[in-house]
Amino acid sequence: MKPVYDKKGRPVYVSDSNQYRQPDNSFYAYLEAQVVARNTKILAQPTLLVQEGQKATVETGQDYVVNVDRDENGDTGTTLYTYEKENAGLTFEVNVDKIDDNGFVTMNLNPSISIPIPAVQSSLSDTGGVQIYNFNRRELESGSIRLRDGQTLILTGVVSESQLEAVRKWPFLGDLPLLGSLFRSRQSTRSKDELVILVTPRVLDDDQGGVFGYGYRPATQQATQLMQNGF
Predict the structure, then answer these.
(1) Contact at 8 Å (CB) between 70 and 94?
(2) How far apart are CA 220 and CA 92, in angstroms?
(3) Every domain of the chain and the residues it spans
(4) CA atoms within 13 A on the CB side of 82
(5) Helix (H) or strand (E) segment spanning residue 228
(6) pTM for this structure?
(7) Which residue, 105, 117, 109, is CA-closest to 91?
(8) What is the pLDDT of residues 186-219, one digit of tens each?
(9) Pick from 63, 73, 70, 66: which is nearest to 125 by CA?
(10) How far does CA 83 lie from the centroid of its chain?
(11) What DSSP character marks residue 11?
(12) How far apart are CA 212 and CA 2, in angstroms?
C-alpha cells in the first residue's frame, strides 16, 4: 500500500485498503481557513526520523549578529572585527525517551521562538557598520508526554508581542522646528502572535522497511522518496 496525496500534495489518511479520507476535524478546518485568509503562516512542516533514546532538532529562521569583537593592530593601523551570530526564528527539539511495543511513544518537546530586536548603539563605526540585535525569546517545555501512534498533540501558549511605530512626514516641512509637528504624524501598531504546534508521532516497523509500520504516512512525497532510498 502506497501513500496517497491530494491535489495540494498533502497526505490523506487510510481507514482500509479501499477507502481514503482526510480527518473530519473542525480545528484543522479552522487552521486551514486562517492560512487561506493569510491570518496564519506555516513556519515549517518537517518530518523527523528519531530512534528511541535519541533527540532531533529543527531550526528555521535567519542568523543575526549578537556580538562584535574589535581588535586593533597598532603596528599596521588595521582593525579586525569578529562577529558572533545566533539564529532567530523557530527552534523545535524532540527527545524520544521510549517506544512501546503497543505503539505508544513517550517523548519530551521543547519548542521556542525568538524575535530579533535592534540593539541601541552609539555608533555603527564601533561594530564595522553592522547592526547588533538582541533576542526576545519565548520557550515551552512540555515535560514527559505519552502519545499513541497517529495521535495528534496540539501545543499552544508560546505568545509573542511586538509594537511598531512609524513616522510619516512631508519632506523638509516635517523637519522644521516648532511647526514641523503640523506636517508629520506618528502611527503605532501593536500585534500579538501565538505559536501553535501540531505533533503526530508515527511508529515505523523495522521488519517492514519502515513503510507500513503502524499506519505511518510521510508528510511529503520527498520524504517518501528518501525513505525508499534507505535514508
Answers:
(1) no
(2) 19
(3) 43-200
(4) 4
(5) helix 221-228
(6) 0.57
(7) 109
(8) 777 777 777 788 888 888 876 555 444 445 555 5
(9) 70
(10) 24
(11) B
(12) 9
